[in-house]
Amino acid sequence: MFAMFIIVPIFIVLVFVFVLLLMFSPKLKGKLMSKQIKATRYMMDESKDDIESISSNMADATKDGIETTTRAIRKGLTENGGIYCKYCGSKIDKDSIFCKKCGKEQ
Ligand SMILES: [Zn+2]
């Protein structure tokens, strides 16, 4: 029981010193940082396969969506032979020289 009264203050002082060292010693900070970076790198290496499988799954899932969107865009662009005005964005005929809406040359 009495030991608590010694250990707790010592522990607090140690933590305090550690925090002070962290604040004033870039070297220690760098060491800790590099440890953290190493740990992160290790974690990434460990989960690399999982991440790869997740991303390939996601790619498969989104592939259909992208294909549908691309097809729709292509259809929209080629249908009616229409293009869009460079200046006002309104739909104009493919071979028109001037915009019907704003009158600017294409
Ligand atoms: Zn226009």
Short structural description:
With 106 residues, this protein is mainly alpha-helical. It has two helices and two strands; from the N terminus they run ααββ.
Report on this structure:
By secondary structure, the chain is mainly α. It has a domain of 74 residues. 72% of the residues lie in helices and 6% in strands. The protein is built from 2 helices and 2 strands, in the order ααββ. It has a two-stranded antiparallel ribbon with strand order 1-2. The radius of gyration is 32 Å and the shape is elongated. Zinc ion (ZN) binds next to loops.
Describe the secondary-structure layout.
Layout: H1 2-24, H2 26-78, E1 82-84, E2 91-93
Antiparallel strand pairs: 1-2
Which range best describes the helical content: under 10%, 10-25%, 25-40%, 40-55%, 55-70% or over 70%? Answer: over 70%
**What class, by secondary structure content?**
mainly alpha
Element string (H = helix, E = strand): HHEE
Tell how many strands the DSSP assignment holds.
2
Please state the oligomeric state of the protein chains shown: single chain
Largest pleated sheet = 2 strands, antiparallel
Strand content: 5-15%
Low-confidence stretches: none
Radius of gyration based on Cα positions: 32 Å
User: On the 0-100 scale, what is the average pLDDT?
Assistant: 84
Q: Which geometry do the CA atoms define?
A: elongated
Which strand order do you get reading across the main beta sheet?
1-2
Tally of helical runs: 2
Name the bound molecules.
zinc ion
In whole angstroms, how far apart are the ends?
89 Å
